[in-house]
Amino acid sequence: MKLKNPASLDNLWLDEVTPRAPGPGEIQVAIKASSLNFHDYAVVAGMIPVEDGRVPMSDGAGEVLAIGDGVTEFSVGDGVLSYFFPKWVSGRPVASRLLGVPGDHVDGFASQVVTMPASWFSRMPSNLDFAAASTLTCAGLTAWRALMVETKLAPGDWVLVQGSGGVSVFALQLARAMGCRVIATSSSNEKLAKLGVLGAEVLINYREDPNWGNAALEATGGEGVSLVVEVGGPGNLPQSVRAIAFDGCISLIGILTGISGDVPTAALMQKNARISGITVGSQSDQAALIKAVEAHDIQPVIDRHFPLAELKAAFEFQASQQHFGKICVSF
């Protein structure tokens, strides 16, 4: 599947391309599944400019078909999982490490077969199928970094997650696996009930209670939450700052309410709290996430599967915000 400029959902088109044999250091992979992220939608909707004819989709899970000279880490038949940042091996984020994003800077995984450097892939978790594994590389890894890298949580700490998209649901699952307590917000009581089944013990409908920061404070006995997984951005920040504990962290991973806005800086300073911007994570973070997924048998929540030929319909379903968890494309 390719994207023709000017980018729009109507300019996605199927093309037939002969797969390229792998060169030295490369592998050829039969892609079995991908999953939709807001980043992918931003590309196909024209919010992120890309080259004409770009193959979209940043997530890819598949099976190795062939290996090039010098490749020792994989064998034919292995299940592999893509990296969102192929150049970010470990350490802190710097600009040069955040280049080469599949589906954006280079062609991505809306393709039945790809040939790419072996270093752009990790092993797949042993407990997941291709579709479930494909949800880890962006949404799962973003949640992991928010909980396990950018802040220090301990069992019993409170975590607040917003909504029921992929990152928020992963954050809930990971927080519960490590023994944290979870507050979940949503505008849908039906989705709140599902979040409760996954382990959120405090459920807040933010439309019914616009001052949900106060409700979170009350639920934690006035202490506040150690971490807010912030997907809304500026429109949510005043309530997130209200909910945060002293020395807490607001992990900013989404801007659904806009790209700029007011921040209650005095309250943030008084609480000695911080806002940490997050864009996915490193390859070493992904290795740690995979081990955690295997150890706790975490099963990603997938709302719906679409075939590749119906990628436009998959993005339309994503834009409707009806989904709970992830949306996958299967090949």
Computed over alpha carbons, the radius of gyration is 20 Å
Give the total of domains.
2
What's the total helix number? 10
Shape, principal axes of CA atoms: globular
- The residue fraction in helices comes out at 25-40%
CATH architectural group of the largest domain? Alpha-Beta Complex
Largest sheet: 7 strands, mixed
Q: State the CATH superfamily name of the largest domain.
A: Medium-chain alcohol dehydrogenases, catalytic domain
Instruction: Detail the poorly predicted runs.
Output: none
Organism: Luminiphilus syltensis NOR5-1B
Protein name: Alcohol dehydrogenase superfamily, zinc-containing
InterPro entries: ADH-like_C, ADH-like_N, ER, GroES-like_sf, NAD(P)-bd_dom_sf, Zinc_ADH-like
Pfam families: ADH_N, ADH_zinc_N
How would you describe this protein?
The chain is an alpha/beta fold and 331 residues long. It has two domains: 2-140 and 281-330, Medium-chain alcohol dehydrogenases, catalytic domain (Quinone Oxidoreductase, Chain A, domain 1), CATH 3.90.180; 151-277, NAD(P)-binding Rossmann-like Domain (Rossmann fold, 3-Layer(aba) Sandwich), CATH 3.40.50. The protein has ten helices and 15 strands. The strands form three sheets. Strands 3, 4, 5, 6, 7, 14 and 15 form a seven-stranded mixed β-sheet that branches. A hairpin with an 8-residue loop joins strand 1 (2-3) and strand 2. Helix 3 (136-149) crosses helix 9 (283-296) and helix 6 (212-219) packs parallel to helix 7. The longest helix has 14 residues, at 136-149. The relative contact order is 0.16.
